[in-house]
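We recall that each integer encodes one residue's backbone shape. We quote one record:
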Amino acid sequence: MTGNWKLEGDYFEACSCDVVCPCLFLGNPDEEECDVTVAWHITKGDFDNISLDGLCVAGAFHTPGNMFTGPKWKVARYLDANASKEQADALGTIFSGKA
């Protein structure tokens, strides 16, 4: 499933690194690994005419080392329980990078 999509809304992020996460700037995590949680609240969005307005997505990531050159990440993705199957499939496609 690939398609046209657009999302507007809010993005939240928190990680286990000190003050500013060096991982975002291609650096190594402060404590040799980084645990980060991100969340998106979609105020307005669609995927191939499927409305995604008001839905949320969250992700939890564990990166043992540099995010860009280190070992593989562990990832968990959480899709809004209020999403229909069609909406959940669309969110899954977008937030897996397949769209």
Remarks:
- The longest strand covers residues 34-47.
